[in-house]
Amino acid sequence: MSFWPLDNYWAHFAVFATVILAFVVIGVMAFIYVERRGFGPFQLRRGPNRAGPFGVLQPIADAIKVLLKEDIVPAGADRAVHFLAPVVVFLPVLLIFAVVPFHGKLGGLIPNLNIGILYVVAVSALGVVGLFMAGWGSNNKYSLISAMRVVAAMISYEMPLVLSIIGVVVIVGSLSMNDIVTGHQVPFFLLTPLGFLIFLASSMAEINRGPFDLLEADSEIVAGFHIEYSGMKFAMFYLAEYGHALAMSAIAATVFLKGWVGPADDYLGGLWFVAKTLLIFVLLIWFRITFPRLRIDQLMGFAWKFLFPAALINLLVIGIEEVAFDGDIPWWVLFINFAVAGGLILAWSKLFKLGGGRVEVAV
Amino acid sequence: MRFERYGKGLAKGLNITLKHVFRPRITTQYPEQKLTVSKRFRGYELVWDKSRCTGCATCAKSCPQGNIEIVTSRGSDNRYVVEKFEVDTGRCIFCGLCVESCPYDALFLGLDYERASYRRGDLVLSKEQLELGPGKRRSGYFRPEVESTLPRQTLLLDTAGRKKQD
């Protein structure tokens, strides 16, 4: 540890616990603003622009509004579960950031944790417990349907998500987040393009947004698991939704975009990290606004018949390369990987069939 | 070989949404910018031309709501003087029958639409509030002579990037 206050373990803990809390809360506010504002141009409108300059105070205004609203607990609800659910949903977001390196080698709470990425994968799956608690505790059929969908999607998409990360881990040879950031001179979204695409798709499903937002499919199940939530608890769900997006963007930026590494990263490392996180999030906004929502059978089929085998083969190819080059993969392997990715996507699209209902559309 | 099913369709969709980002916005920033309403707009008020009104109360009789209250007295030159002319716009259905029935073309629908108020009582418009004056704009509804003087309706704002609407 380089400079004085952080030499002490407790000072280090205090500083970074504060940083993480501030980063998550401000980041979530910023993401809400960026998404609502970013949807504007895609839909030929402007987005919120009344509260403050360019509407930057809109999330704060919304937060104040929602905090002042009445908190209603439905009759017949499991009160304890109903009360705890928003907390359980939001907690993993904070936990994930414990191992995310913000800046340089030591710019994080425990960025050198030797099982870093495993910890991330384990903790990020905790949110589903909260969502299921919300669905169950609300005593509402729609929230229960939504909760079942969340669990189904989460279990299915955890598999390709982890496999796509394992591809990176195989190349790096370490589970630590910092080793992954500095693991290879080529960013992993170029070195393992298929892994990156699989990670993006399954993380979108994991955080239940974009085309995979079946759990709050308004036209089918009203609002999903948070129908019966209002006031501050609803605000917690709203925060958690964007918090998970923030966490997944940060993980994607760290694992696939080399996190804090960039020109002059001795000083600007934190900025690079934030910029890359934001870039991933803008990509997610773009996907969300473009693609229509999947049906539940399409969701399951996409996970198990497309992403899962593709992720397995991606892992196999990376493993073969790793053995062939004796653990030191040169940069030009990315061309091979791009070819493999293209070929796999073509082949799997050809083979991809959904049970019976699929009709070939002539274009 | 068509690639629509091999990921090209997704890329096409992304391209379409991206193109939208660079198109001009179609929203009107309402309190600052306003669109021109239809020439025959049935606005949220009536406009009453005092000089043409004879106090015959045909409008009151034609009103399906019984909403127009008109009280007249006998003036000095043997003509009706309108003492009271009240319309409860809260009950008015803006059917325009009063305007159509007026034998002296003294009643018009208005072009104004910003008459929201905090109390129902404020919706009852008195003679003075209805009277044709400088701030009052008459709608062309059932009044072709007014219609010909009004500007064309705009459905979108004329912004710099957009083709001007004629």
Secondary structure elements and pairings:
The complex is a heterodimer of chains A (363) and B (166).
Chain A (H helix, E strand, L loop, with lengths): L8 H34 L15 H10 L11 H18 L19 H9 L2 H11 L3 H32 L4 H5 L6 H4 L1 H14 L11 H4 L9 H26 L8 H26 L5 H29 L8 H19 L12
Helix pairs in contact in A: 1-11, 1-12, 3-4, 3-5, 3-11, 5-6, 6-9, 6-13, 9-11, 9-13, 11-12, 13-14
Chain B lengths: L7 H14 L24 E3 L9 H5 L5 E7 L5 E9 L8 H5 L5 E3 L14 E2 L1 H4 L13 H4 L19
Antiparallel strand pairs in B: 1-4, 2-3, 3-5
* Major sheet summary line of chain A: none
CATH architecture of the domain at 46-147 in chain B: 2-Layer Sandwich
Show unreliable segments of chain B: 160-166
SSE topology string of chain B = HEHEEHEEHH
Give the C-alpha Rg of chain B.
24 Å
Distance between the termini of chain B: 46 Å
Annotation, overall tally of beta strands of chain A: 0
Proportion of residues in extended strands of chain B:
5-15%
End-to-end Cα distance of chain A, whole Å, is: 61 Å
Mean pLDDT of chain A: 82
Give the biggest sheet of chain B.
Answer: 3 strands, antiparallel
Q: What oligomeric arrangement do these chains adopt? A: heterodimer
Question: Mean pLDDT across all residues of chain B, rounded?
Answer: 83
Q: Based on CA inertia axes, which overall geometry of chain A fits?
A: globular
Name the helix and strand elements of chain A from N-terminus to C-terminus, one letter apiece. HHHHHHHHHHHHHH
Our estimate of the beta-strand percent of chain A is: under 5%
| CATH overall fold name of the domain at 46-147 in chain B | Alpha-Beta Plaits
